[in-house]
Amino acid sequence: MTTGFTMTIAGRAVAGATEYDVLDPADETVAGRAPVCSPEQLDQAVAAARAALPGWSATAFEERRKLVLAVADAVEAQLEPLKRLLTREQGKSLDDAAGEILGFGYWLRGTASLSLPETVNEDSAERLSVTQRVPLGVVGAIVPWNYPLGNSGFKIAPALLAGNTVVWKPSPFTPLTTLKVGEILRDVLPPGVLNVVSGDAELGPRMTEHPGIRMISYTGSTRTGRQVMAGAAPTLTRVTLELGGNDPAIVLPDIDVPAVAEKLFWGAFANTGQVCLAIKRLYIHRDVYEPLKRALAAYATTVRMGPGTEPGVRLGPVQNRPQYDRILDLLDDSRAHGHSFAIGGPRQGESQDRPGYFVPLTLVDNPPEDSRIVQEEQFGPVLPLLRFDDVEDAVTRANACEYGLGASVWSADPEAALAVGRRLEAGTVWINEVQHLTPYVTFAGHKQSGLGSESGPEGLIEFTAPRTITVRRDGTASTAAS
Questions:
Q1: Residue among 276, 377, 401, 454 flagged as catalytic
Q2: Phi and psi dihedrals of 69, rounded to 5?
Q3: Is 276 among the catalytic positions?
Q4: Cα–Cα distance between 19 and 175 in angstroms, integer?
Q5: pLDDT surpasses 50 at 482
Q6: Active-site pick, 37, 89, 100, 242
Q7: How far lies 418's CA from each of 279, 285, 288, 382, 444, in Å?
Q8: Of 49, 51, 166, 309, which has the fewest CB atoms closer than 10 Å, so is most exposed?
Q9: Does the annotation count 209 as an active-site position?
């Protein structure tokens, strides 16, 4: 068990009011003990961020850019210990943990290359009118357990670059790596600019309702996102919400099955399916349904699942007990309704003979469209394969969903696929790939999948407010009413 975790408030180590056990999902042993932030300590973190705000927002943009880059350097310098800690608490393989940490650095560097716009509305002999983007104030960054650091880059980088200060809260299930990063950064950023707190389920609502926080940037479930929005409403706190998804992929009949099968597999099962943008409904044209089903099942048998610390493991456990139980409940529901399984299924396989939250890779063979396994976001190593006869039917079924996060279309003819993709109701639509994101491109959800934007220029602007300054140039004072 790793010990000695503390919060970071005003640049100093702060012990929690109490502590709790953080479990390793691979064997259910204690990975470490995390501090619980009391209401008074949250007040202290917000106060520290507010005290640091004037100096940080007044810091030249280029200097903030350099410090964001310094954050990336400092975190990457600790890659080896951080990846092992991330694997212990999250469950993913060491290679995937390293990729997530390097991805955090990549996101910071990419975001640091962006700039805030300044619009000249009028530049005449009579007046100068300019609209600038200014920081909002203290940002509450609330991140999920599937990518504790990777997702944080979407929030920390633009918030700091735009001149805000931050109170950063990881998921109660995966706080350890974030706490360690907070420790690393105490000597990189001015005190109070980045504060890290951890705690139980009560800490998030306290943040969303806190009058000293001016923006909440949240990633997680749609249900909790609604609660975040409600909690922020009394103080009109700005919210950016990246929420759930039930992403469809449509496979047209002209695909090369062997070439596409592996890509579709990882589009669905990377990080054990615990990806907001994972393929969660795979619509396959009847002409290629059977061969693609066989190819996916065959490839699945070559992928090793187990503790992320073991050599050769590609997929780890489901991260926590509540999600594990939820996935098993979905599989039990499928079995009760007579669904067939191309591979895996409820409570089968060697994964049930070992400790940890392991769910076998499962392909559900053409379940009904109205079944729970299709209509609900699985967020685990389970994928329903759905047969369709014509594209019109596939598009209709893909869009008949409350979510609209991502979607993809696969075809040997990119133009034909693009024509289908333009009809899909999602914030991001990929053609012949999936989950390709960069810090230079806006990412947003439609319908119940979110509010606001992350990444790219629009994502940076989310962390600012417009301020228009007008200068009368003719030397006389006037008002619109004079």
A1: 276
A2: -65, -35
A3: yes
A4: 12
A5: no
A6: 242
A7: 18, 16, 20, 27, 19
A8: 51
A9: no
